[in-house]
Specification:
The chain is α+β, with helices and mostly antiparallel strands. It contains two helices and five strands. Helix 2 links the parallel strand 4 and strand 5 (99-102).
């Protein structure tokens, strides 16, 4: 199951020549964990979040690069399967947008 936290381009924050989500993985994950398993389930999120650190799961980030007008999906190798990428493109509303998938050492799990 993919779980996401996203923002619009208008709500994104500048990072050099890029626009990125203003919240970090740790911040979002801890807010979810504090909800507890029951509330997570009610919100449609996996209750397993409550008992694990965010580093235990494959993760990534979508960054908009203003210069080339390109969305870059930085993704753990476990997420770089065609069906997962297609679902991420759908969930982030990137169908019809220029996008690329890249690896990054920051988004790597040992699973």
């Amino acid at each position: 199951m993919l779980v996401i936290d996203r923002t619009s381009l208008a709500g994104a924050e500048a990072y050099g020549d890029c626009l990125t989500h203003p919240r970090g993985h740790h911040e979002v994950w801890e807010a979810w964990r504090k909800l507890g398993a029951t509330m997570l389930r009610r919100r449609g999120l996996p209750p397993a979040i409550a008992g694990h650190e965010y580093e235990a799961f494959p993760r990534g980030r979508v960054v908009y690069m203003r210069g080339p007008a390109l969305f870059t999906l930085y993704a753990d190798r476990h997420l770089q399967r065609p069906e997962a990428i297609a679902e991420l493109v759908r969930l982030f509303g990137l169908a019809g947008e220029r996008h690329a998938v890249r690896s990054d050492a920051h988004y790597r799990t040992n699973t």
